[in-house]
Amino acid sequence: MKLKKIHLVLLSIFSGILLTLAWPEHGFPGLLFIGLVPLLFVEDYIARHRDRFVKFSPLFYSYPAFFTWNLLTTWWIYNSTLVGAIMAVVLNSLFLAIVFQAYSWAKKQLPNKVAGYVALISFWIAFEYLHLNWILTWPWLNLGNGFACYYNWVQWYEYTGAMGGTLWVLVGNILVFEGIRNTKYEIRNTKYEILNSELKIISLFGSAELRFAPVRYFAIRYLIAFVLWIGLPLIASYIIYNNYTEKPNPVHFVVVQPNVDPYREQYTLPPNRVIGRIMDLAGPLLDSTTNFLVAPESSIQEDMWENDMSTFTSLRLLKEVIAQYPQLNILIGGSTFKIFEEGEPLSRTARKFRKSDGYYDVFNTAILINSSDSLQLYHKSKLTPGVEALPSFRGFKWLEKFALDLGGTVGSLGTDAHRKVYATVQTFPVSPIICYESVFGEFFAEFVKNGAEVMIIITNDGWWGNTPGHRQHFSFAHLRAIETRRGIARSANTGISAFIDQRGDAHDVTGYWIPAAIKGTLNANSELTFYVIHGDYIARIAVWLTILLVLISLVLPIFAKKAFGHRVTGAQR
């Protein structure tokens, strides 16, 4: 059937709609397994009619799918920055379209269909891995995250991480596409043969029955493969979920959601008011059994210099709380600054003082305060692109002036080189995760690998308003709990605070824009999952396969042309 180009665009948009309807927080993730099928038909049509299309047609015709998906799932970014929202949607859609273009190119060069599909899977997963680890990181729409609200389906993430979910989705789409495609073509070919037969009428019907047998065979074969591919992991997941039990190693928390307006109050309220609001909520719940008091990201905006932290009002007030509860550990977020000493190597994010020759760095920091003499600091290391991170290496420093101003310190922040584990008083070791970092599975797992037995997420999701943004962000914590089998205490300034157990179940969930304090217990766990030990091994395999397949795609046509005098273009799809 000859399709008009507008039909290809509509099919592409349909793919984007299916992916959107599958996405958290209200989507049904089963649609992920068919979300790319219309797009695969678009690419297949272009591949079979290359004379009608330009070289980059797969990119042009896949872009509407990815633009639709990005726009309808991450539109809420505009609440904090319209420019940032436009850039996130436009660029991420372009990156995914480039992946699809690369797949179409490789499929043409590679010797068979299976190799082409391996290229699709490898290229996609390799890109998701890149999106976890480069300066423009934005892994929000990595396919494995799509099961965040249906985490009972993916309890096996403790073995594969979210990359296993991406692999699950991609293979599922390929099986559906191949089942429909082969069945359709077999029916077409069979009808053609029957209509052109010169047999008698009675023989014609007999022949039709025999000739349509392969059609049923194709349909049943792919249906069985699809059911097994989807069904077996689901069964395994429910078995794991229903049989998982936590060992009793209680850690007692009080988590505060102070609801400080990030646009109107966060950078103007005096320190005593901020700490007063936190303690008004937490005070009635504290007692001699409480191990942790947790307050959210960026709670303290006192411009604290790490070279001398003892003089700041916020910390002095919190030390007074410790004096009342010596067993207590207080974890709170704040902005801190560090002056580089003379001769000390400068970081790539170092800033020069305007009125002197010195340099300093700025951090989004998690601060642990307890009865020990020293404070323990962790600097956020997975930074939000465009707000906390811009290319700051040589030749790109000028981009700093375009950093999005959300009311605090503007420009690239400093980071920590190590995934720190806090030494605590009278309880188990913990690690902090700051906001955006909770989207990164392998990064999160590194804290656990270093010895954290309970995890704490502190965040400020108020920038996005009451939109799917803060709810999607919260849902990703289910996956991190499963991957590492660690309980998570989550403190949001304006968002969702909760306790998440080792199976991913959330307890004592707070409402949006409601000042609250919750008291709960999580069990510490010292055992390491397969995923914690090995990280994103699926992605690393995909990266090596990508390199190998690209090399083969470049070299194979050259050798074929020399050997046979023409260019090998692969099997007809």
Structure description:
The chain has two domains: 268 residues, no CATH class; 203 residues, Nitrilase/N-carbamoyl-D-aminoacid amidohydrolase, CATH 3.60.110.10. Helix content is 45%, strand content 13%. The protein has 15 helices and 13 strands. Strands 1, 2, 3, 4, 5, 6, 7 and 13 form an eight-stranded mixed β-sheet that branches. A five-stranded mixed β-sheet has the order 8-9-10-11-12, with helices on one face. Helix 10 links the parallel strand 1 and strand 2. It is globular, with a radius of gyration of 27 Å. About 7% of the residues have low confidence.
Q: Figure out the total of helices.
A: 15
As a whole number of angstroms, the C-alpha radius of gyration is 27 Å
Low-confidence stretches: 190-212, 393-409
In whole angstroms, the N-to-C terminal distance is 15 Å
Number of domains: 2
